[in-house]
Each structure stands twice: as C-alpha cells, then as structure tokens.
C-alpha cells in the first residue's frame, strides 16, 4: 500500500481532473486527539491526500473553517455529555458520509470504564467542585447516537487503514479492511504465537486485526486496542487465560481497557466481575 | 545446475542410499547455494523452530527438540548435537509456494484504455532442507489444489495457478525422516508414515543417525535432480548397520504417535452434519483461524484491489484468508456461514471428508499443527472421536 501511494513522484496540488475535491471535516469528542494525529503523521502521503480532498474543518491542523455540508466527516471520540450528544446529531445532518475513527468513537474508549462504576463518585473524588461537572453516566460510541457509515478501529487507529478508507471513499469502492482476528496478522507475518510458545496472555485471538502486528512482534501479548474481532469468543479465551494462571480480576481487567464497552469484551469482563 | 555440469556428471540413480558426515551436509548446503538456490531450512526463531533462509548447517536447531500438546509448544533440550530432533513447527513450505501475500498483477488507466502490468519479479528457486514426511504429503495435496503436476505425473489438473506452479517447479526438496513422533502427531492414522516413501516427490531424503553425540546421515536419492546434486558431493556407501538403524528408527517413530484419527472419518462426518458436537466445539472455538493459518494444506485466499488515491493505478493482491472469517463465505445477500459452528464444521468436514470428493485425497496429513497452535487446544482427532463414540452408543 505504501508503495502504491508513493508511486507518484510529485505531490499533486489539485484533485484528479474531472473530480471535485470532497470537503472533509475532522471532529473531536471525548478523546485524546491521537487518532486525528494519525492523519497528520501520514507525512509522506499527506500532500497527496490534501491534493485530492479539501480540508474544510480540522482544528488540530488549522483554525480556518469552511461551513458545511461536508462530503466526509471523520469523527474521533465518544459521547460523554448532553451537549456532545446534540452536537453529533448536527454533524450527522451536515455529513454525506460519517466515518468514526478510533476506540473512543467506536466503543466508548477507556473513559467507558465509568460505565461499570458510579460516575458521581468519580467526580466527587476528582473535582473540588463536582457541581460544575455536567456529564453523562456513560461514555458511549457514536453509533449509539447517529447512523455511522464506516468504523475504523484502534487506539490509536492505524494510519495506513485511515488512508485506505479515504482512498476507498474517493474511488467509490469498499475499503480493504478485514475484521478477522489479530492471529491472522501474526501468522501472515510469521510472528510466532506468544501464548502457545511462552504462555503469555494475549487477546489476539479475539481482537480485530489491523494494528500492524505491533505488540506480538515486540514480545508482548495483544491487549486488544482494536477491540473485538468479528466473531470474538471472549468466554473461551478467558477460560484459557485462567489455565495460564491469570486471576479472575486480572482477566476482568484485561478485557476492560480501551474497548471495555465493546459488546464482546464487556460481556466477557462481566463474567469475571 | 548448468548444462556443462549435467553433461559431465552422471546422476546417481533413484533409490541410491549413501552415507555422509555432518561436513557432507555442510557441503550440500554450500553446493545448493553455489548453484543458485535460496536455501530454506529449519532454524530457531522466537522460541520455535521455523522455516527460514539458512546459510549453513550451523543455522539448524542443533540440539533442540520440542514438546507439543494442545495449545502448547515448548523448545526443550534434545539429543546433544542432533540437527533434526525437533518436529514440525508453526511454519511449513506452504508460505514459500503460496506466500501470505502475493501481487498478482497491476493495471494503469491510460487515455481511453488500461494497461496491464505483470509482476516483474521472477519466481525464486528454493531448496528446502528438512521437509518432513507429513509436509511432503501436504505439498502433494497443495499440488493437486493449485494444479501442479510433477514430471512423473500425467494429471495436470483442470486449473493451474501460475504463481504456485512456477515456484513449485523450480524448487528442490530435501526431506528428512522423523526419528521420533510427538504428542500431536497422527500421520500414521492418516495413511502417512514418519519416513518418506518413494513417489512422494522428494529429491533427496536424509536420515540422521546418532551414535552418542556423534551423528552421520544417510542420503537417499528420490529424483534425477537429486541424483545429480548428490553426485557432486563426497560420500561413502551406506553400511548395512545404517540401513538397519534407519528401519528401527522408523518403527520407533511409528509407535510413538501421540494422537490417532478414528477410522473411516470421511463417511462419519458426512453422516453427522447436524451432530450436537458442532455446538459443543463452537463454544470453545475462538474463530481466530490459527488452525487454518498453520495447516500446510489450507489454501483459502482473498483477492483485493489496491488503488492509489487517483484511482488510475491498481494492483491486485492475493492474501491468505480463512474459512473462519465471516467475509470468506460472503455472497450476494450476505455470508453463508454466520456462526462459528458452521465455520468449524466447514473446515473440519472439508479437511477430512469433502476434500476427497473435491480432490481425490484427504486434506489432512496428520501433522498435528492445528492442535498445537490452537490457542485453546481444540483437537481435531478428539472432535472426530467424540462424534464416533456417540454414533457407537446409538447402535
């Protein structure tokens, strides 16, 4: 994919002849900005991308704003306030295609840990004036509020996958993004299974592929930042983690991180509550 | 091998067995490299024995063995100095003949038409060293699938995959006989044997014979190409006691099979497509596809178009896929096999039963990789046995 994108020697400043530059907006909700940064860290490919699209709203990159409607909205972050729940509906109204990016937008993010606790107790513990805080009891993904055209997983997202989604959208095709397990990525790459050879706990068998096989190639088990794979069987993997010596609490916490609120992970962690 | 070498050198006839020391094997590796092969052999990587490019016998897993069982693989100390004490690892020659991702062709839109670009790179010439009997039989299975026919075979198949065939045609296979069998091995009950047989397509076959921590090797010729290579090496005649040792070794390994596939598994599975065991295994199956990735005969792939941003250039890539992925059974209207139950059943019945109908042989060679590399240790032999047992109870 990289080679394909780099094929053209000179970055283009105007879109392909005969094709209007689509207006793209990048929106932030409750999140850390890391996924938006993936777009900026495209570096080599960025000039090609901006040659084909018009950045209409992207505060992380520029304070210039162009009014909607937008052809593509990239949405980062989860919904944690009433205000944001209204804002996402307005963005949806102005967007032809709405693509959510990252674990927060697709599952509620790490902040969805509040979904398993008492949010008022949190605000009392953290803030001097908890009465200033207006927050919802849960952190929820964008698709719980508005229809979403495409979801891009990851904490953070993989920049090549982001480019692929933009590319596919520009060319009117389905993105080449698979929803299989991380194990397929390991095996295609030739990464030896850490769980089988060393008994290292790994969420790879139930985790969505796409990160680029980062942790298993650095001798770490997958910790699920891409959320559940299409057919995740968390309960069976959890029983194996017990056999590998993890305590019930460790197993609960293993499934309860960046994608704690994703259905398959949430249901598994609740078995160990 | 060049023509001039061929003309001066007489090939040793098929079936010839000679004896060499470890230095003889080193000379073999050097010779293979010298005549232009990329030498692929066993080596230790990340706590497992995998196939990788090797340059010398020093790259072999010397002194290492492995202890395998459902969902577990551990490297353990083997016979000191032994080259081939380990058994099959997570990789097989499959990834070289049928790479995990392979560019098929590209195309560029020109004014009013498009140009097709064929891949420029030439298929590599691989010499595999250390191919086990079950792996050799897996290659035979994939030859059938991808339509490769050896020179001694007449059936070229209906469909022939040029990418596989090109790589396969140029490859040289040096097999090694298994001195022992592991807990997940069941080649014998799949009609195989820990020692290679003539007609299975090896060029040379090695047998490692240990005498204390000293070892030597028998090399048997399996093809004309193998005979030509061997003729270029220094060797001595095999001794009677070597042949006896080889026979004893084969018998010992045969008796050590850790698993057994039930008899008549093909009709058994056909008669039990609605068995409750499929639900049971689905509750354990992670649908992660590890079994299919490590299987030396699984051949599912996905084909995708990779365009550049303008859409004027595209490349068509083939990547490993699996019948455990939901998209794999996607047809107009949606996927056919939505549940893990039906995907596991598809995999197991294809491997052991409908493969016979499709290709005229079993899709399983009994290497045991799917058992070892399943993260939760699901055992294909046990699943078959459970179905068999319930059938016996009914009658």
Percent strand of chain A equals: 5-15%
Helix run count of chain A:
12
- Order of SSEs of chain B, N→C? HEHEEEEHEEEHHEEEHEHHHHEEEEHHH
Radius of gyration of chain B: 22 Å
> Portion of residues in helices of chain B?
25-40%
Largest sheet of chain A: 5 strands, parallel
Tell me about the largest β-sheet of chain B. 8 strands, mixed
- From the coordinates shown, what is the CATH architecture of the largest domain in chain A? 3-Layer(aba) Sandwich
Helix content bin of chain A: 25-40%
Total of domains of chain A? 2
What is the level 1 CATH name of the largest domain in chain A?
Alpha Beta
Quaternary state of the chains: heterodimer
Total number of beta strands of chain B: 16
What best-fitting shape of chain A do the alpha-carbon axes yield? globular
Secondary-structure element order of chain A, N to C:
HEHHEEHEHHEHHHHHH
**Overall pLDDT metric of chain A:** 92
Give the count of helical stretches of chain B: 13
**Biggest contact:** A-B, 49 and 52 residues
C-alpha Rg of chain A (nearest Å): 20 Å
N- and C-termini, Cα separation of chain A: 42 Å
Structure at a glance:
The complex is a heterodimer of chains A (273) and B (395). Chain A folds into two domains: 23-170, Rossmann fold (3-Layer(aba) Sandwich); 182-271, no CATH class.
How would you characterize this protein structure?
Chain A is an alpha/beta fold and 273 residues long. Chain A is 35% helix and 10% strand. Chain A is built from 12 helices and 5 strands. Chain A has helices spanning 2-6, 34-40, 46-52, 82-93, 103-107, 119-126, 159-170, 182-189, 194-198, 234-243, 248-255, 263-271; strands at residues 23-28, 54-57, 70-76, 95-101, 150-152. Chain A has a 5-stranded parallel β-sheet, sandwiched between helices. The longest helix of chain A has 12 residues, at 82-93. Mean pLDDT of chain A is 92; it is low at 1-13. In chain B, the strands form 4 sheets. An 8-stranded mixed β-sheet of chain B has the order 3-2-8-9-10-11-1-12, sandwiched between helices. In chain B, strands 7-6-14-13 form a 4-stranded antiparallel β-sheet, with no helix packed on it. Chain B is globular. Chain B has 395 residues and is an alpha+beta fold. At the A-B interface, helix 3, helix 7, helix 8, helix 9 and helix 10 of A face strand 5, helix 10, strand 13 and strand 14 of B.
């Amino acid at each position: 994919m990289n080679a394909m994108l780099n094929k053209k020697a000179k970055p283009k400043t105007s879109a392909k002849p005969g094709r209007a530059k689509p207006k793209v907006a990048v929106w932030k909700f409750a999140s850390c900005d890391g996924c938006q940064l993936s777009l900026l860290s495209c570096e080599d490919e960025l000039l090609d991308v901006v040659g084909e699209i018009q950045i209409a709203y992207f505060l992380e990159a520029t304070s210039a704003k162009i009014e909607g409607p937008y052809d593509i909205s990239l949405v980062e972050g989860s919904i944690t306030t009433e205000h944001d729940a209204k804002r996402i509906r307005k963005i949806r109204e102005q967007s032809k295609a709405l693509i959510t990016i990252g674990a927060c937008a697709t599952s509620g993010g790490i902040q969805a840990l509040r979904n398993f606790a008492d949010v008022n107790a949190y605000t009392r513990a953290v803030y001097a004036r908890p009465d200033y805080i207006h927050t919802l009891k849960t952190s929820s993904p964008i698709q719980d509020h508005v229809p979403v055209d495409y979801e891009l997983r990851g904490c953070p997202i993989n920049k090549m996958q982001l480019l692929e989604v933009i590319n596919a959208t520009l060319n009117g095709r389905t993105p080449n993004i698979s929803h299989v397990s991380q194990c397929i990525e390991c095996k295609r790459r030739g990464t030896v299974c850490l769980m089988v050879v060393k008994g290292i706990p790994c969420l790879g068998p139930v985790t969505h592929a796409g990160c680029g096989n980062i942790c298993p190639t650095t001798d770490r088990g997958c910790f699920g930042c891409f959320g559940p794979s299409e057919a995740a069987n968390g309960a069976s993997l959890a029983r194996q983690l017990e056999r590998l010596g993890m305590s019930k609490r460790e197993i609960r916490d293993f499934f309860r991180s960046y994608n704690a609120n994703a259905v398959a992970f949430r249901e598994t962690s609740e078995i160990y509550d | 091998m060049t023509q001039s070498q061929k003309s001066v050198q007489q090939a040793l006839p098929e079936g010839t067995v000679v004896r060499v020391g470890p230095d003889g094997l080193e000379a073999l590796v050097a010779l293979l490299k010298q005549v232009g092969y990329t030498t692929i052999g066993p080596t230790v990587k990340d706590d497992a024995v995998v196939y990788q490019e090797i340059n010398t016998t020093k790259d072999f897993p010397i002194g290492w063995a492995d202890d395998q069982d459902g969902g577990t693989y551990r490297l353990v100390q083997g016979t000191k100095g032994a080259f081939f004490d380990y058994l099959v690892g997570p990789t097989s020659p499959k990834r070289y003949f049928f790479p995990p991702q392979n560019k098929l062709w590209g195309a560029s839109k020109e004014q009013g038409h498009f140009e097709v670009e064929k891949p420029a790179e030439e298929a590599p010439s691989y010499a595999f060293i250390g191919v086990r009997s079950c792996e050799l039989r897996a290659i035979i299975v994939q030859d059938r699938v991808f339509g490769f026919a050896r020179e001694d075979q007449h059936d070229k198949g209906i469909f022939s995959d040029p990418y596989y065939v090109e790589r396969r045609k140029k490859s040289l296979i040096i097999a090694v006989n298994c001195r022992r069998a592991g807990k997940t091995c069941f080649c014998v009950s799949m009609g195989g044997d820990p020692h290679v047989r003539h007609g299975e397509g090896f060029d040379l076959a090695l047998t490692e014979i240990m005498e204390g921590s000293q070892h030597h090797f028998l090399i048997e010729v399996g093809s004309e190409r193998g005979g030509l290579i061997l003729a270029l090496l220094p060797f001595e005649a095999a001794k009677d006691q070597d042949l006896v040792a080889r026979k004893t070794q084969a018998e010992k390994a045969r008796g050590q099979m850790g698993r057994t596939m039930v008899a008549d598994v093909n009709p058994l599975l056909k008669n039990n497509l609605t068995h409750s065991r499929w639900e049971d295994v689905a509750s354990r199956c992670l649908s992660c596809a590890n079994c299919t990735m490590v299987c030396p005969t699984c051949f599912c792939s996905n084909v995708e178009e990779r365009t550049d941003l303008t859409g004027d250039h595209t490349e068509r890539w083939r990547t490993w896929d699996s019948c455990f992925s939901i998209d794999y059974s996607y047809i107009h209207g949606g996927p056919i096999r939505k549940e893990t139950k039906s995907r596991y059943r598809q995999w197991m019945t294809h491997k052991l039963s409908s493969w016979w109908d499709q290709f005229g042989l079993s899709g399983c060679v009994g290497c045991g990789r799917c058992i070892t590399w399943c993260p939760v240790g699901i055992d294909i032999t046990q699943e078959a046995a459970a179905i068999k047992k319930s059938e016996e109870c009914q009658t």
